[in-house]
Amino acid sequence: FRLALVQLHVSAVKSDNLQRACGLVREASAKGAKFVALPECFNSPYGTQYFKEYAEKIPGESTQKLSEVAKECSIYLIGGRSIPEEDDGKLYNTCTVFGPDGALLAKHRKVHLFDINVPGKIQFKESETLSPGNSFSMFDTPYCKVGLGICYDMRFAEMAQIYSQKGCQLLIYPGAFNMTTGPAHWELLQRGRAVDNQLYVATVSPARDEKAAYVAWGHSTVVNPWGEVIAKAGAEETVVYTDIDLKKLAEIRQQIPILSQKRCDLYGVEMKK
């Protein structure tokens, strides 16, 4: 099946972001994509100072638009971190998934908050305004089972291992790595998660905006189970397409059967919730 990653240029005007995102989703569907993914924070600028201002409940304005366009195009739509979600007085970094009938299939709240300090380069603390999610998020389709993470979640290998154990063959991480962590780790982490678990990994970033308070690295990418980069964007707004070949995945798992050769008598990773 064909997967499309929408690397969107995000402005400060929510309505413009929603309109442009839906337009690019329709374009991707017209070119045969059955799965379309939007980037982290696609409807607002990324930054702790923006989260409260742009927050919505779910369902709300942004998710209603995503539901409508998913149904119109009859696709699976992974809504990036569609919105800073407000729920019971707390804010979450939340990704929603809608099916071809427009129904909400999954809602992933970012589990690991991005609190980092690289002296002289970048300091950021999502926990100043956001609360963490407390669950894994998977959804079934006639094609395959898909696991979700958001950006910083990708650094935690255990999360991807759990998804693999639960039968996922594709992991999708909407993300917005920056100009420090992006060139160092963005592709490296994707290839690591893909090879370790013998599955496809897709990441979808906002387009780079040098004038933004937080500059995203871009380079939305798809990696196959062999660890090869099979699709990759530059820094500009674009849509990246790739075909997910589950037969190739099965062949790789048969050739190097690491999933069946794990020494579960010596070690293990378990899901507690």
Automatic annotation (TrEMBL):
Its EC number is 3.5.1.3. GO terms for biological process: asparagine metabolic process; glutamine metabolic process; oxaloacetate metabolic process. It holds the Pfam family CN_hydrolase. SUPFAM superfamilies: Carbon-nitrogen hydrolase (SSF56317). It is an enzyme of class 3 (hydrolase). Transmembrane segments: none annotated. Coiled coil: none annotated. GO terms for cellular component: mitochondrion. It catalyses: 2-oxoglutaramate + H2O = 2-oxoglutarate + NH4(+); 2-oxosuccinamate + H2O = oxaloacetate + NH4(+). InterPro entries: C-N_Hydrolase, C-N_Hydrolase_sf, Nit1/2_C-N_Hydrolase. Residues 1-246 form the CN hydrolase domain. Keywords: Hydrolase. GO terms for molecular function: omega-amidase activity. Belongs to the carbon-nitrogen hydrolase superfamily. NIT1/NIT2 family. PANTHER family: NITRILASE-RELATED, OMEGA-AMIDASE NIT2. This is omega-amidase. The gene is Nit2.
